[in-house]
Amino acid sequence: MEYLNLASIICAAFAVAFGAIGPALAEGRAVAAAMDAIARQPEAANTISRTLFVGLAMIETTAIYCLVIALLLLFANPLLG
Amino acid sequence: MTSPLESLVLFYLGPVPITLAVVTTWGIMIILITGAFLLTRQLDLTATKRQAALELLVDTIDNQIRETSGAEPAPYRGFIGSLFLFILIANWSSLVPGIEPPTAQLETDAALATLVFLSVIWFGIRGSGVRGYLRSFAAPNPVMIPLNMIESVTRAFSMFVRLFGNVMSGVFVIGIVASLAGLLVPIPLMALDLLTGLVQAYIFAVLAMVFITSAVEDGAHHSKHKPPHSPN
Amino acid sequence: MTIDWWTLGLQAINVLILMWLLSRVFWRPVAAAISKRKDAVKAMLDAAKETQAKADAALAQVAAARDGITKERDTILSSAKCEADAATKAALSEAREKAEKIFAAEKASLARDTDTARIETTKQAAELSTEIAAKLLQRLSTSSIQEAFVSRLIKAITNMPESDRAALAQTTDGIDLVSASDIKAADKAKITTSVQKALGSTPTITFVTDTDLIAGMEIRTSHFVLHNSWQSDLAEILKELNNAAQ
Which spans are transmembrane here (chain C) (predicted)? Predict the structure, then answer.
């Protein structure tokens, strides 16, 4: 029982930590590309920002999935009953 | 610490448990509807400042719908606009002390995602008939049918989890910080929460519009027996 | 993790009701107001455009009318100017012509008057001079002059053409010898012989006195006159003078 709790907590922390790395890098790239595009075509800034926000939300979803997994591990772990 | 996945049941209406989120939603509904009713009582040709602000809001939403879907906004305005307004007010209701936003609860987000899922079907059928809507699953070719069917469920599920995760995490973090240092420290996080709430409301509405549009357009393409467009 | 399906259903119904009510209360009225304003603005713009077009048309009409008036005025002015010029020119030329005519007429009449005056004067002067000469010569009527005239008469008879002299010699009516003063009997005989000698015949010669001759000796028959006197000479000179004056 004790080990299961410990493992759940450690896994939740790892899930959030590693799950945040990928989206962070991806969002950085996306924002950089969007800035570049806006710098090239300032008149298209509206469309680019809208697409950027949608894209960022999509990317962020993976991090949110990790967060939900972590919460499940912490608060609704089926193995802990 | 209470689990963010649990919901607090206030009382039972017969067999129906009434949770805190439902009561908060009722409050938001009352505020929105009375506010809208009071604000739109005197609409005139010559706009007052209040009416100009309302028209600016409607016009902005119309423009967003038009730019996203390329279609006339009139049929979608009520659904998308109400979705946006409700999620926005619900997200920002966390600023009121003692009130937990209903979008931080699984059930509300699940209900919203279900509504979007159903509305995609509704608008797809309305746009191109049952056969046209069913054919839209075969876009770009019949091999994609199972994938498209799974996608239509997963994208609704993804919207659900995204909204829930964002709002709930914001509330959760603010709760943790407030329990550690109650005064002034949570303010930057609350400001961030405001931005997140706005962005999430916007994204939810835009994604709903995108899904509806794709369903309508795919159905329209197939019902006119045009050659299938190339996959993006 | 458990999902409360009751709550899910309630929330879905809540949101649906919210959407429906908001559509009724908020979206449709505001959108209707917007479209109504758009329609009103469009109608006003159309009306304004129509009014503008009308105003433009009226303006163009006015401008055209003004152009027409200006053109008309210009043509009237130019034609009036032309007419005035022509009238001026005509009047000028007429006046000049008239003046020239008057001038010429004046000149001609003046010349004529001068001429006539001159002729008249000359005639008068000639007459006066002949009169003076006659008066002067009357005092010179002496016998020597008488003799000179007789010899001139003889010379004239001899210088006459042969036929005339023959006709004069053959005359039967007799010849009148006219002189200014009474001639003495001796002289009469001498003159008769010399004349008969010159003629080569013996016609009857009658002596007549005529003071008008001033001085001289003339032969007169019924159809022949041989002038040989101051009077005839003066008459001849006067005639020549008058001819010269003409």
Answer: 6-27
First to last CA, chain B: 46
Q: Which helix (H) or strand (E) holds C77?
A: helix C28-139
| Stretches in chain A below the pLDDT threshold 50 | none
Query: What CATH number is associated with residue A62?
Result: 1.20.20.10
B219 pLDDT more than 70: no
Closest C-alpha to C9, from A53, B118, B201: B118
Q: How confident is the model at residue B227 (pLDDT cuts 50, 70, 90)?
A: very low
> Among B64, B166, B202, whose Cβ lies nearest the Cβ of A64?
B166
- Residue B19 in any domain: the answer is yes
- Chains in contact with B, counting 3 or more C-beta pairs less than 8 Å apart as contact: A, C
**Residue A7, in any domain of the structure:** yes
Judged against a pLDDT cut of 80, whether residue B8 lies above it is answered with no
Backbone angles phi, psi at A14, to 5 degrees: -65, -40
H or E stretch including C170? none
Return the sign of the alpha-carbon dihedral for residues B160, B164, B165, B170: positive
User: Which residue out of B38, B77, B123 would a mutagenesis test of the C interface target, given it has the greatest number of C Cβ atoms within 10 Å?
Assistant: B77
B143 vs C56, more confident: C56
For residue B108, the enclosing domain spans 9-223
C-alpha–C-alpha distance, residues C81 and C240, integer Å:
65
- Quote the CA–CA distance of B174 and B92 in Å, as a whole number: 13
Residue A81, domain member (yes or no): no
pLDDT score, position B222: 54
Decide: B136 and B123 in contact? Cβ < 8 Å: no
Span A52-65, pLDDT tens digits: 887 887 888 888 88
Number of independent structural domains in chain A: 1
Q: Does residue A26 lie in a domain region?
A: yes
Contact across the interface for B202 and A53, Cβ inside 8 Å = yes
- In this predicted complex, what is the ipTM? 0.84
